[in-house]
Write a structure and sequence with these properties.
Length: 236
């Protein structure tokens, strides 16, 4: 599996606080079957905004330690950007990192509100050649209430990324029902861990994928965890 949504950089956001915690998370991810992952720290007003170059340097530092500890996890750079006007300018200025420097951007929406400028920001990103990958759509109240909102965005060329643990009810029963519905409707392109550590937001990827296989079958899930994530990483 290639994990396209992961909070593993220590001391950057609400992921691991220490290097030891980051290494423990990396070992757990490998046990879950993950061989590569994109580090996607939050890009919002809640945490200090780290530039794309700083994220790249931190990924290089962590990769070096992973290699020294014989942990077979390949890391790439990215951000999880909260939707707001001006993201194009942030990308162009080197403040915001796309997924491994590709045209794909991991985009987070507001959980409890569908902002009026949502469609406009996404239109601007698409017009600039950026493909938004909507993080955990199953968690947004507006999509829980009306899945056609996600369908509408995907008709504009947007992709969607499900969190594996959502299928296990770890984010609540409403989120679980929405995750199942979005999978069955064919609205999900990638399944990721969105792991933050072992005590909070643990990966639980393998169990989530086994559940997903029961809903869609192995070949469909394979596309969501290897084929399509590989295309994102290589900018295809």
């Amino acid at each position: 599996m290639i994990d396209t949504h992961l909070h593993i950089l220590p001391g950057v956001d609400d992921g691991p606080e220490s290097l030891e915690e980051a290494l423990a998370l990396a070992r757990a991810l490998v046990r879950e079957g993950i061989s590569a992952a994109i580090a996607t720290p939050h890009y919002n007003d809640e945490f200090p905004r780290r530039s794309a170059s700083e994220i790249a340097a931190r990924v290089d530092d962590l990769q070096y330690v992973l290699n020294r500890n014989s942990i077979p996890l390949r890391l790439y750079c990215g951000h999880e950007a909260l939707i707001k006007p001006g993201l194009i300018e942030d990308i162009q200025a080197g403040r915001l990192a796309t997924l491994n420097g590709s045209r794909y951007l991991l985009l987070e929406l507001w959980n409890n509100a569908w902002l009026p400028e949502t469609e406009r920001v996404i239109f601007e990103l698409r017009a600039a050649g950026i493909v938004p990958v909507i993080a955990h759509p199953e968690r947004y109240r507006a999509i829980q209430q009306d899945a056609d909102r996600l369908s509408m965005l995907e008709r504009q060329g947007v992709l969607a990324q499900l969190t594996a643990s959502s299928l296990l009810g770890m984010q609540g029963r409403t989120t679980q029902r929405c995750a199942e519905m979005l999978l069955k409707k064919g609205l999900i392109h990638c399944i990721a861990s969105d792991a933050h550590g072992l005590r909070k937001r643990a990966p639980e990827v393998a169990r989530g994928l086994r559940y997903a296989e029961k809903l869609l079958g192995r070949s469909s899930i394979y596309r969501m965890i290897e084929v399509q994530p590989a295309a994102i990483v290589s900018n295809r």
